[in-house]
Write a structure and sequence with these properties.
The protein has about 550 residues and is an alpha/beta fold. It has 20 helices and 16 strands.
Length: about 550
Amino acid sequence: MANEPGPHTLDAEAVRTWSSLALAALGRAREDIDAINVYPVADADTGTNLYLTAEAADRALTEAFEKAGADVTEGTAGTASLSEAVRAYAHGALIGARGNSGTILAQLLRGVADVLGAEDTEPGDGASPDRDRACGPLLARALTRAAEEAYQAVAHPVEGTMLTVAGAAARAGATVGAAAATAADVARAAYDGARAALAETPGQLAALSRAGVVDAGGCGLVAVLGALWQALSGEAPAEEPVRGRAVPVPSTPQPCAEEQGGPGYEVIYLLEASEEAVGELRERLDGLGDSLVVVGGDGLWNVHVHVDDPGAAVEAGVVAGRPYRIRITHFGDERRRAKAPRAQRAVVAVVPGEGLAALCGEAGATTVLARPGEPPAVTELVDAVSRAHAREVILLAGSVELRAAAGAAAERARADGVRVAVIPTRSAVQGLAALAVHDPDASFDEDVVAMTAAAGATRYAELAVAEARSFTSAGICQAGDVLGLIDGDVAVIGSGLPETAEAVLERMLGSGGELVTLVLGPEVPDTLAAHLEAYVQHGHLAVDTVTYRGGRWSAPLLIGVE
């Protein structure tokens, strides 16, 4: 099997095994690393952030192998090269980086990829003593580049942190690599150097010394380097890189960011921008807060900063380029959530509009915003389930396209002991119908059945504007035509929104209904809602109509008929 530990030369298969072992090691150590997280903010999430970052990297690597024709279950490498593997691994980490530590890990992997990715070694080259010795210096250079790029990515590097551990690992690897050692020898030296540096971190950083712990991010990096050595040597470490309670755990609660006097918010986003614009962004963000880390390159960046004004941090990103997957976390809220007992049950809803998100939030749901062309990733859904902080969670997927991601998120939450049910809603109006009958006092199964039935009994429609001439199930449409989609299929083609909406309503109400739900897009006037309400009342006296504003990112018009 591909994921079983075994000796590897430095090739694509070694990268895949490294990824698998690193993810497993971080999974085992996650809670313990969270427990010793006191710097830069004591928000008890470093282990979780590192794990989620590694998970995103592992998923991207798996997809790269599948794309290259590899058979993951049989352990065959297909046509994947070392360059393809390591670049996919680093790119996945960049896209999925979480928190300060995850962002730095992403840049470390990018540094490794910048060196190993320049190699054009293909699968099937095979291992040989000469090649193994050549790979040792190559890996040493990669670890050195990784540490250099990580230091450069952090606006104000601090010793006694993950950076210190990375630097020590690189120096130890370089010392051995200079003697033409194998890649496994270099990895072992880097691992040992990292462990030694980790033990010294309390003497370098006052926050660690006061709490009596080593650096949490450094702990995670030791686990990742231990996995690298295991992948290349086939030998498991004598003990877990970070084992159980092997590191001291603070006996008293650590202050949150506000109590420490630091900024109150963490802001993270992906950014499409030029390198010149990112240089200006760094200067602007550096003046707004601290813990600034900007990683990436080639037009795609991951930005992380702690600020008191999250709006200004996002605005700076807009000036620099196109920010997306924006995540804003209030440290005080996170700390209080961690201390608070879990609720018995919660609902998580994926919604396509800020107005809908606010509406569902008022109803008690934890929301995930789905922007056009940017569906939420599995990690975002996992995070939402975590934020719900409940023993039982009902997840409203929101669309057919998100069912697989919702299912994957549910599986991960179940692994953490949360009972999760996914209701396969196909539209936001079905989610609203399900949320309307949610009963936290009923049993979990009864609640899920009632919400599923309400969603299934709601026919849904969406009005959209055609972007180009194309063939549809209702005939040929031209660019600018208004399309009326009923239950996912184009049923009506019209020239304007009001008349197309009327035709859609007439078809939907032809088979009966008691309640019509209208969700208006951001640019649709209120007069359309009044017009459609009058239209429904005129032809269907017994049918009630409710109207909501979808807000930014929502479709021009959503219609639900129950």
